Amino acid sequence: QVQLVESGGGLVQAGGSLRLSCAISGRPFSRYALGWFRQAPGKEREFVSAITTSGTSIYYSDSVKGRFTISRNDVKNTGYLQMNSLKPEDTAVYYCAAAKFVARISSEYDYWGQGTQVTVSS
């Protein structure tokens, strides 16, 4: 059974930074593409970022491009989302997910973390 455990969420002022971590267990992380999604209250879950198994291709939504950075460390079986210049509009529950192939669609992912709350104040 593959499990993902997220950490790093919290409360931060606008303009601040947070780094989210996603630790995978059960199988080597190197076998999976990593995706990050977020969901605000009353809104649909939206794609944030994704990275291929090799790390050679990276994708971002337009709303976070230039501010967020996705990365992975397969030796540590951990993925990351570095979030800089945070805005109140970034407030949401953030989820990491693993898939055999990289995708922007949530239904393509096989395993999900529990989610971590990120709140950005004005």
Structure description:
Strands 2, 4, 5, 6, 9, 10 and 11 form a 7-stranded mixed sheet that branches. The protein has no helices and 11 strands. It is 0% helix and 50% strand. With 122 residues, it is mainly β. The mean pLDDT is 96. It has strands at residues 3-7, 10-13, 18-25, 33-39, 46-51, 58-60, 68-73, 78-83, 92-99, 111-112, 116-121.
Layout of strands and helices, then pairs:
Layout (H helix, E strand, L loop, with lengths): L2 E5 L2 E4 L4 E8 L7 E7 L6 E6 L6 E3 L7 E6 L4 E6 L8 E8 L11 E2 L3 E6 L1
Parallel strand pairs: 2-11
Antiparallel strand pairs: 1-3, 3-8, 4-5, 4-9, 5-6, 7-8, 9-10, 9-11
Q: What keyword list fits this structure?
A:
mainly beta, 122 residues, four-stranded antiparallel beta sheet, seven-stranded mixed beta sheet
Please, how many helices?
Answer: 0
Radius of gyration: 13 Å
The SSE string, one letter per element, is EEEEEEEEEEE
User: What's the helical proportion of residues?
Assistant: under 10%
Q: What percent strand?
A: over 45%
| Principal-axes shape call | globular
Classification by helices and strands: mainly beta
Mean model confidence by pLDDT = 96
N/C terminus separation: 41 Å
Residue stretches low in confidence (pLDDT < 50, at least 5 long) are none
The largest pleated sheet is described as: 7 strands, mixed
Using DSSP, what is the number of strands?
11
